[in-house]
Model the fold of this input.
Amino acid sequence: MAHADSGSTSWVVRADRLVDGTGGPVLEDPVVLVEDGRITAVHQGALPEGLPVPRARLLDLTGHTLLPGLTDAHVHLNLPADGSEFETWSREPDGVFVAAAAHGARTALDVGITTLRDVGSRGSTVFDLRRAADLGRGVAPRLLVSGHPLTITGGHGHPLGGEVDGEQDLRRAVRELNKAGADWIKVIGSGGGTKGTLVHRPAFTRAELTAIAEEAHRLELKVTTHTVCAESLEDAIAAGVDGIEHGLFLVDFEHQEYSPQVAEQLAAAGIPVTSTLVVGYDVVRSVDALDKPDQEQRIQRDRWERMLGDTLEQFAKMRALGIAFISGTDAGWRFTDFDSLPDELWLMTEGGMSGVEAIHASTGQAAEVLGFADEAGTVVPGLAADLVAVAGDPLADLRRLREPVMVMQAGRLHRHDHGAAPAWLPEDGDG
Ligand SMILES: [Zn+2]
Done:
């Protein structure tokens, strides 16, 4: 009887077209029915005869495209996304990290990102944010959390607190993360952007990586691995990990040498890769926005532009081998903010994906890889009503996804900037 909680409102959602996230064809003139936070039916054409659901409101999005809520599979909610130096920012206390995480989560949800996987946070900070949102204290996307990334002593990401060495201690660390509520184990398989680490060298030994994967699988957890050089990719494949982050082929902090042999191993193993194309693009844009960049900034800019060009070429080659990509931004890191996913999807189309394929990589495909496909990710009856609407047809330029007019999370209207408040539909027998 209570209608105050909009999560229990029934909705009849009408739009010009639906990209349903399955990778299938676009549906014209969709009518999506939502009851108790779940999609109950997807019709086409006129509103169904009579009222299919009691106490329904009409969300008329004529002139708009409807999509599932999007997934960003690689974020760092603790980090500020403002170009701060990682090592300096990491001196902030846990309270600041929780507040930053709440801010980032809200920024993501505002642009229709209804699922985030955090692949590197400190202590309990992002677990605590998820708990607070579950208790109704603030809103956040669905959060898949890995806690601190496991890294060698002095390895990439070590200021987040996950330095562990040796197979026995790594097995214990996996068990501790499981106890803390981790959904995924994140492992740093090579150097990265943290000072003093080597991007062209593996970090853990193959035996250490194998111990991590074995222990995670024993606990029915999955492992995803930061790898930015070919040798670390080979180690991760041999260890039996479930996901690759970045998947670069760096030989130094600027140049890549693509290895067809390693890419073929990856394809044969069927391990998906999280693209993080936008993080370099954002560095280039941040320098281009300056009036007078200094020489160091110009060098950085050109370095990242070159890496992005190589990465886009490799992306196309790896897709041609059948490697599956899901969308991630590395938001929080460097200059990449938590609303950057539309740019990532656009970059995927620059790398050869169609608009529908890039949306699939961020919805149905991401849900399959991350393990929540039976809960959300596509506009299919039975799943949570995570819905987004944008004006016109975003497939021509996915950057338009940055300005949704409507965001719904499990039937709760988070954002609605289009026209009047949704009208109540007459109930059966109301005349
Ligand atoms: Zn990252």
In short: The longest strand covers residues 56-68. The chain has two domains: 6-68+378-424, 70-339.
